[in-house]
Amino acid sequence: MSREIIRTDQAPQAIGTYSQAVKCGTTVYLSGQIPLVPETMKMVDGDVEMQIRRVFDNLQAVARAAGGTLADVAKLNVFLTDLSHFPVVNQVMAEYFSEPYPARAAIGVAALPKDAAVEMDAVMEL
Question: Can you give the pTM of this predicted structure?
């Protein structure tokens, strides 16, 4: 099976030993995104809603670089340091996705890189 590394300047560059995404056949594995602004590689200013929006924007940029859109996401994983923010995830997600929605998991975690409140990764089928 072919394996293609996906990279775009429209999303934050990898801050470790990983790729923004890897395409294997028609499946694309999008690495976790935190609310980094691609141009500055600094955390977005603002509340948790702004962080969630930035994460969706980053995922969207990587999806486009792979030849897809968020509509092609089959599975979304959401990691939150505070599960009380989950209603905000639902509200913002409804602006980025339409039915049929992808499968999804929401996981409460103790901490995320750079003290982010949210991180998301996804699996996309083209």
Answer: 0.97
